[in-house]
């Protein structure tokens, strides 16, 4: 990334954070993923339970290893590869009352609206209500001008890329294009548009000046 892009990231992030605050959400900006990791880890209270939600952003930063190493912190992680599906589902249920949930967002608009799309809904449900604190780590590559652009980004980019990553048998896995399928394995089922929250600062968006996740 050259200096002009870095400057744009910092200026756009400042504007987004102002708009998040008007919506009773908090925001902050880090230039690098390494700095963001340190700051997210520092936000986790002693003895907290932390719910891990699907996020390639957090995986790429090494965030889960750092959180799992915190003394006294319990990481509710439904993603160990050898975990039976019924146990993974139970962890997702327990995550709904965790102290902290951590995820990213599929898109964020310049005026601070968060747009997400889930297959089962555990991530968007926990964003809306349940965990006391929601921390969303968001690369500036997910910033879009408006709601229509956010929906298009999620449906025509984030969802197909995730299908390809997971190797699901959906049409977009083959073509990279969304056909609005009705397959049993469709991951595009539950939309969430967060325009604000009555619990002030429950949602904290940590913007990062790098391309992270999808
Ligand atoms: S609706 Fe179906 S084809 Fe479209 S992105 Fe989702 S899973 Fe892929």
Instruction: Output the radius of gyration.
Output: 17 Å
CATH fold type: Rossmann fold
The end-to-end distance, rounded to whole angstroms, is 17 Å
Number of domains: 1
| Strand runs, count | 10
Number of helices: 8
- What's the average pLDDT? 97
Low-confidence stretches: none
Reading the helices and strands in chain order gives HEHEHHEHEEEHEEHHEE
Helix content: 40-55%
Which band does the percent of strand residues land in? 15-25%
Neighbour order of strands in the largest sheet? 1-10-7-4-2-3
Heteromolecules bound: iron/sulfur cluster
| CATH second-level architecture | 3-Layer(aba) Sandwich
Morphology? globular
Architecture overview:
The chain is an alpha/beta fold and 214 residues long. The mean pLDDT is 97. The chain has one domain: Rossmann fold (3-Layer(aba) Sandwich), CATH 3.40.50. The strands form two sheets. The protein has a six-stranded parallel beta sheet with strand order 1-10-7-4-2-3. It binds iron/sulfur cluster (SF4).
């Amino acid at each position: 990334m050259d200096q002009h892009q870095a400057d744009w990231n910092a200026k756009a992030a400042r504007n987004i954070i102002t708009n998040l605050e008007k919506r009773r959400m908090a925001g902050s900006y880090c230039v690098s993923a390494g700095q963001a990791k340190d700051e997210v880890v520092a936000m986790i209270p002693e003895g907290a339970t932390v719910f891990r939600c699907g996020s390639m952003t957090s995986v790429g930063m090494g965030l889960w290893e750092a959180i799992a190493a915190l003394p006294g912190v319990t990481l509710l992680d439904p993603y160990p590869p050898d975990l039976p599906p019924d146990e993974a589902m139970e962890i997702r249920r327990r995550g709904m009352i965790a102290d902290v949930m951590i995820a990213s967002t599929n898109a964020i608009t310049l005026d601070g609206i968060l747009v997400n799309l889930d297959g089962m809904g555990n991530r968007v449900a926990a964003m809306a209500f349940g965990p006391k604190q929601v921390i969303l780590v968001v690369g500036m590559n997910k910033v879009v001008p408006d709601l229509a652009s956010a929906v298009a980004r999620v449906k025509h980019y984030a969802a197909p890329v995730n299908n390809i990553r997971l190797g699901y048998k959906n049409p977009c896995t083959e073509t990279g294009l969304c056909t609005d399928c009705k397959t049993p394995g469709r991951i595009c089922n539950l939309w969430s548009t967060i325009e604000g929250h009555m619990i002030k600062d429950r949602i904290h968006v940590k913007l990062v000046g790098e391309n992270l996740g999808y």
